[in-house]
């Protein structure tokens, strides 16, 4: 379970007990005062221990709270809606995970590393009806797991897709992969058609998307198109920043191409036996044409791999 939920719950309970303690002192209830002080101390110690665990618990965890028409308070949720929503969220996570591992995905086919991105429902969240999804691993994570970083990305993607400012959503598009966009579109479409709302709690993130926010995100996702083409370019490698995975290349006609590079391309560059900057090379790139809502299309270039260094 996201530790933020437990921390918030304990903090709220301690605040309530402090109010009761104040009333007990004013009324002279000595026994009640002693009992409340003991309970507050007990919960405060538990809270401090929980905060310390946050520093060492690096596994992925997220809580999804649903509201609106499919939900009956904290009593229940429509089974069909819940099943579809959880499947769509998992699908979004799987595609973001695969994209982070292998780069751009094909238009169709199996999603690479899908098994590595699977989350499990480990509990129900209090309040509005919600589900706790956790990464299940037999090994202790010494550092934040890759899946944990992916959930960070997914949560931010969902939040920023619904932002009031169009520019916030458009800033995501350069890094957005077509199949991730489709998964995003499906998720928001289901929420909107079901007249549902969602609250997402993950690490330090805690935000709610209401009906208008979800509809705004749905419209943006549906109105945005991302087309990709793979091509080979011969030219001179003008610049390359391995730590930032950025490159600049001028083709034989003098046209400049600038964009990001895959992990594989970075490894090829680092392993080159001599400096290849300022020299000719042949590369394979994907050119992504992004057409956002009410904006002119723009191209995003990604260097997939070096096919040849030098002449």
Question: Could you characterize the architecture of this molecule?
Answer:
- There is one protein chain.
- The strands form three sheets. A five-stranded antiparallel β-sheet has the order 4-5-1-6-7.
- The radius of gyration is 25 Å and the shape is elongated.
- β11 (280-291) and β12 form a beta hairpin.
- The termini are far apart.
- The protein has eight helices and twelve strands.
- It has helices spanning 3-27, 30-54, 79-102, 146-161, 166-170, 178-193, 211-223, 263-271, and strands at 61-68, 71-72, 76-77, 120-125, 130-134, 196-202, 205-209, 225-241, 246-251, 256-261, 280-291, 298-309.
- The chain has three domains: 3-54; 61-223, no CATH class; 227-309, OB fold (Dihydrolipoamide Acetyltransferase, E2P) (Beta Barrel), CATH 2.40.50.
- α1 packs antiparallel against α2, α3 (79-102) crosses α4 and α3 (79-102) runs antiparallel to α6.
- It is α+β, with helices and mostly antiparallel strands and 311 residues long.
């Amino acid at each position: 379970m996201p530790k933020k939920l437990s921390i918030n719950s304990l903090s709220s309970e301690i605040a309530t007990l402090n109010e009761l303690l104040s009333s007990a002192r004013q009324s002279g209830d000595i026994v009640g005062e002693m009992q409340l002080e003991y309970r507050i101390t007990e919960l405060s110690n538990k809270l401090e221990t929980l905060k310390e665990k946050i520093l060492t618990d690096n596994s992925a965890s997220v809580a999804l709270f649903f509201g609106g028409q499919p939900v009956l308070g904290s009593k229940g949720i429509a089974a069909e809606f819940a099943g579809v929503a959880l499947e769509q969220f998992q699908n979004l996570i799987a595609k973001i995970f695969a994209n982070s591992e292998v780069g751009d995905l094909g238009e169709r086919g199996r999603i690479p590393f899908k098994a590595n991105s699977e989350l499990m429902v480990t509990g129900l969240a209090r309040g509005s009806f919600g589900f706790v999804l956790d990464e299940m691993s037999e090994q202790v994570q010494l550092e934040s797991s890759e899946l944990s970083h992916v959930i960070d990305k997914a949560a931010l993607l969902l939040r920023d897709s619904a932002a009031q400012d169009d520019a916030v959503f458009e800033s995501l598009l350069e890094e957005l992969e077509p199949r991730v966009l489709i998964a995003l579109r499906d998720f928001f479409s289901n929420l909107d058609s079901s007249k549902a709302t969602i609250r997402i709690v993950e690490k330090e993130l805690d935000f709610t998307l209401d009906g208008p926010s979800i509809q705004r995100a749905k419209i943006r996702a549906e109105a945005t198109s991302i087309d990709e083409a793979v091509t080979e370019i011969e030219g001179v490698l003008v610049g390359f920043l391995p730590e930032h995975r950025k490159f600049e290349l001028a083709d034989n006609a003098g046209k400049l191409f600038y964009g990001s590079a895959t992990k594989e391309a970075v490894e090829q560059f680092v392993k080159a036996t001599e400096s290849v900057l300022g020299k000719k090379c042949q590369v394979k790139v994907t050119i992504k044409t992004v057409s956002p809502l009410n904006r002119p299309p723009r191209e995003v270039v990604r260097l997939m791999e070096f096919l040849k260094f030098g002449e």
